[in-house]
Structures are given as C-alpha cells and as structure tokens.
Amino acid sequence: MKISIVINCFHYAEYVGQAVRSALVQTWPDTEVIVVDDGSTDGSREAIAAFGPRVRAIFKANGGQGSAYNAGFAATSGDLVLFLDADDWLYPEACERIAAAWQPGTSKVQFRLEVVGADGRSKGRQLPTEMHDREALALVARFGSYGTPPGSGNAYSAAFLRQVLPMDEAGWRIGADSVPILLAPAYGQVVSLREALGAYRVHRPDDDGSLLFNNAPKGLWAEFERVQRCQALVTAHLKRLGRGARRPMLLAPWDVRLVALCLRFGGPPSLPLPSGASAASAPPPTRWWLARWALMSLWQWPRLGPVMKLLQSLWMVSLWLLPLPLARPVGRLDRLFRGAPSGG
User: Fold this and answer.
1) How far apart are CA 77 and CA 55, in angstroms?
2) What is the DSSP letter of 211?
3) Average pLDDT over the chain, rounded to an integer
4) What backbone torsions phi and psi does residue 309 show, to the nearest 5 degrees?
5) For residues 104 and 232, what is the distance between their CA atoms, to the nearest angstrom?
6) Domains assigned to the chain
7) What is d(CA 20, CA 52) in angstroms, rounded to the nearest whole number?
8) Is 194 helix (H, G, I), strand (E, B) or coil?
9) pLDDT digit string (tens) for 16-37?
10) Beta pairing partners, 193
C-alpha cells in the first residue's frame, strides 16, 4: 500500500522545511512526498527546492488552497493520500499507523493532532476532543459536520478522492480541506485513531479575540458563509448519491457558537437560507430566526449532555442580552466550550 503525502504551502518559508522532513522520515516504507507551492514569494520555493529529488515539487501561480489540493492530488500515485499543511508536521510512525488501520471500504482514517504554538511548543492538548466514525454520516447529513481533525489529521482513499476532486477552485480558495473531510462519510467508512500522530500549529494565542472584535462584521459573517457553503456541498453530494436530506440542516455546536457571536458582534445578517431550505419552507434569516435556529440545533445535537447544552444556551442568551461592554468578555468565554466533549 503506497501512501502519498501532499504538502500544500503558501508563504510558510519558516515552517515548510519541518513539514517536508517529517514526511521524508516516515517509518512506512512505501511513501511519496509531493510539495505544492501556491505562488509564494517569501522564500518558500527556495526552502522546498533545497530537498532536491527527494520530493516532487510543484511550483504554480497563486490560485488558493483548492487549486493546491487539485494539483497535488493529480500528481499522486498512492493508494492513500494525506494532505499536510506546510505549517504542521507528522510524527515518524504516522503512515505506519494509518496503513495498519486501513480496512476495505474505508474512505478516511483520521487521527488526533497535538496542538502547538507558533514556536512549535506543545500547548498541552489535542484536537479534536471527540472523533466520530460510525455515526459520522448521520451527523454530517443532519448537521453538516462531525467530530474530525483539521486537514493534516486525515488520510483518504485515492479511490474516494477521485469521486470528489478536482474541486471548484474559485469556491475553495481557503478551507479546501473541508471538501474531502465532510464528504468522506458519504463515500465510505471513517476510521478513527485515538493517538496523536502529528502536530497542528496555531499562530494566535488561545485568548486572541481578533476574529471576534477586530474583523467584525466581515470576519464573522464570512466564516459563517463558509459554513453555509459546506452544508450546500454536503447536500449536493448526498442528493447525488440518493441520500438527500428531508429537512434543512441544523448546526453542530461549534457552528452554533459562531452564529451566536455573529449575531452579537457581526452586524446585520445578509445570508442565504440554510442548506435544503426554501423561501416557502423557512422565513428570511432574520436575527430572531437565526437565534432560534442556533438554539434548536444545540438541543438536537445528540453528542452533548443536557448540562453542557444548558450552559451553552445560557452563554448565548447572556451574550445577546447584555450591554456591549459586558457582552465582550462573555463572548471570549467561547473558548471554555471548545474542549467540551461535543465532537468539535
């Protein structure tokens, strides 16, 4: 079984070398390493070229992450494909563990990642707190998401990827890892490994509120628009496979919290209806409608206990009703729920 490691890079000259080295020292003997640079101008290309023939380097004009995924996958020859972000890295035994866990009919093997800071030091936690596998299809069909690692924590069957790639490059300039992550449960079995097999680098402090307060309203609603695109993607593929959703999708808890923050700090909403809804089946997405949608989604999520549902509901209501000077510190309490055993 051959495993292809595709490293996508854009302006990560400081980190890409570590990612490449981690791919080259895998204990699994049958691997190939492909590095796609998406038009970097910061020295990334020189760092990649320094590895010479040990890697297959693809230097392309900037087109976004979706275009890097497409170009990288087109160059692979492996049975399994792992897309590694250039600022993350793999542990040496990652591919060996993935190959051992592979089963017929598997579309994805997912594994935990150790969270590290910009300096590479561990932050003492792993992502995700909970991974969903056998129930992943039911969750993604109903809520548009499930418990999964970020992009670097997933290895896919090449046969599955050929059914969903190439992706629309214009629509996935960022967040392209969402495409194979969210579609994998519809095309095969998801297998979870509970150990950390790589490192996921975060570049901002845990208490950084820049998305919350500095980028609003554009940053918050833009992130929620990404959630809407993900739900539309899932809906389209489920219909293609004859598994069309009967009801409009709800939201996973992490997306519920995003809606709560959008409604308080993001300005007036101007969004399409939820995936699967129509003007005849749902009212326009007013602030009240979105708030009700978020609360209803939270209480229907099957992987969260009633105490945590109540706490998150109280957090949302307090966020919406308190005066702005008090709502800001309440908004930052969002981070207390990120480690809750809800799959996100």
Assistant:
1) 13
2) I
3) 89
4) -65, -40
5) 29
6) 3-201 (3.90.550.10), 210-337 (no CATH)
7) 11
8) strand
9) 999 999 999 999 999 999 999 9
10) 111
Encoded tokens for 314: 């109280």
Strand bridging mode 80-85 / 56-60: unpaired
Which token pair is 284?
């326009």
* H helix or E strand, kind and range, residue 9: strand 3-9
Q: Give the residue from 203, 167, 338 showing the smallest Cα distance to 261.
A: 338
User: What does the pLDDT read at residue 230?
Assistant: 93
Residue 83 phi, psi dihedral angles, 5° rounding: -90, 115
Lookup: tokens for 18:
């570590």
Measured in residues, the chain has a length of 344
Instruction: Report the candidate in 216, 296, 333 with the shortest Cα–Cα distance to residue 263.
Output: 216
pLDDT in tens, 97-137: 999 999 999 999 999 999 999 999 999 999 998 899 999 99
Prediction pTM value? 0.90
For the residues 10-16, what does the mean pLDDT come to? 97
